[in-house]
Amino acid sequence: MKWFVVFLIFLSMKMLSLHSAPSTSTAHNSGTLLTGLDRVKDWENMAPGVWRARIGDSEKELSYTDLAARSPRMEALNRLPEVPFPFAKEPVSSLCNDGLVHVRIPCGADESIYGFGLQLDGINKSRRVLDLNVDHWARGGGRTHAPVPFYISSKGYGVFFNTARFIKVHAQVGNRKDSPNNPTPVDRNPPPQEPAKGPWMAQPPGDAVEVNLRGQGVEVVVFSGKNLLDIVSRYNLFCGGGAMPPLWGLGFWHRVPASFNAEQSTKEVEEFAAQDMPLDVLGLEPGWMTRSYPCTFEWQKHRFPDPAGFTKAMFERGVRLNLWENPYVSPEGKLHKSLEPLSGSHMVWLGIVPDLMLPEARQLLCKHHADEHVSIGVSGYKIDEVDGYDQWLWPEHAVFPSGTPAESMRQAYGLLWQKMLLEELFRESNTRTWSLVRSSNGAASGMPFTLYSDSYNHAEYITGLSAASLSGILWSPEVRGAGSAAEWLARIQTVCFSPLAMLNAWASATKPWEFPEVTDQVRAAIHLRMRLLPYLYAAFADYNQKGIPPIRAMILEEAAPTPVVQKADEELDDVNNPYADGGIRIIEQNDQFMFGPSILVAPYYGDKSQKREVRLPKGDWYDFYTGEFVGNGSSIEVATPERTPLFVKDGAVIPMLAKAINNTRNAYGHPLEVRHYGKSSGSFALYEDDGNSFNYENGEFGIRELSFVDGKGSEAIAKSGPRLFGDVSSWVQMGN
Ligand code: GAL
Fold first, then answer.
1. Would you say residue 102 has pLDDT above 90?
2. 548 within some domain
């Protein structure tokens, strides 16, 4: 008999329920141990809700926290409430054998597993096998620009495998014969007279997240908290807190075609001004160098005869320069000779690969970058091609002079570049950077680098914003081109609600006014981003100090039901569907996300470029533009493609610049309009610092508390410090 039944394996995610065993800092001894596995004991309680265990010789491995921007923010973690250890009942177990390390984390069939980095095909990774290898996105299966080995469970905990090794994950896939939780087998072809005992499942759910890797050991860090946002925040704090952008980094970015020279670039900047289009950062692509692929990191004097003069002239217009580069050093470059003995055995694009584990290699690179770029005012870099996997990067048998395994180098190379540029270049000159990188990994939350990709699916680009928020990374759904005016506008609207609002015209030569019929709306979208700078900057301060991602997946906002569905007994087909299982379908909605503390963004995209559905979480929600009530826990339809659908929580207070500006230097001292939405009282902690240096790390920042009570706004100084924005010029009760 055929089943055409679609049945739910997991009906809906239950309310987050935490395990109830008491918290302790040592061994947890209850639960059944499966054959041949060792109980992971000696969980060290490092801070409230953070436990660490070392399996095998984990100290001999390169761990991601070794490369974090800062050490764990213990003071912030220690202020958080204690929560119980999540694996007190069922033990975490491991096996180290013949260089293979295996860790088994118990996990119920009813749990949803989220995360593992920049997985652009969806955030729910339940019942999947993933290879966590740095790679281009297109390879899929776990391989991505940032395969962060950190996941969170709907049950209320997170697990981080803190090692720069390829990791294979079997998330609820696989059934051990000695497990007490296996489902009962069902006959796939029962005789006609027998009553069916239930649907046969091609993939019976497993009861663990099992991982394996080759190495000497692994450090496992477990996080718990009151909800998923709390867990992710603790992870970010453990990794040193979130990155704090310079204010200019949040302005609009434009990258010019790879062959552009100084004159063409200047003309482009002038056109932005003539078009009344915001611009803060101009990105130069490979042609700025004498040689690229492999690179010299030296100015191409035919195109840029006077780099210092050009950089200065740009800066006088308020425009900073971001330089593209990949790390592979050309034999024609000045750096080649001295870096040659400090590089790996294999080349990339016939350029040598500097071993960044060696301080001498980093010093040579940083001195060059300081002398030739940063000293004349270059504000940051786009570190390309650090994500290539087998086809492009070095093989696993490559040898590096520091003795770092080639595999770990591949997993961590993007991180190593970020760490070097942050610590040994920008921090040295006490100037913040906001830069780009094409690969990252664990413990990266403090890195002022945003990821991007050569892939270009708009829906996936929106998903990336949610995915990144679960793993301490930042993602830019950059705009390059579009097949229609509607797509162009929708993509620009999306990128304006991301950590880095950029048009990357390196090959397309597009400009924001590419489709004249929507130029006014494009300008309005970018202007709105500029007006929201005070709000966004404060959201980043929360990332930095409290670990709260500034742009967040909806599951961090509410315990959203995200059922895992298995389509059973679909049409049998001996070529295309021999198991008649239809595959595991994960139903989730990643096309909306939170921007800062109180704005829900639901961008238009794909065939939803004119009209779409928005799911509003529980609580009263208001239209950002009009202040009108729109719903509570309901789904609504919007059809206003001329502007990004934005919805605001009841009681939200939103500080904005009173008028749109075209460059962040005009934000300094700019008067504020403070809006209030809905009926409840609310407040907003407006964070301010000098906008550019690292002095905020020494407490040089101020907080103005902006409150609305009974429809009346008021301001109080919560912490005195530098002022960035101007006075409040208007308090607006929206909807009135
Ligand atoms: C690609 C990169 C593009 C562009 C191009 C220049 O690898 O993803 O954004 O920079 O290189 O050659």
1. yes
2. no
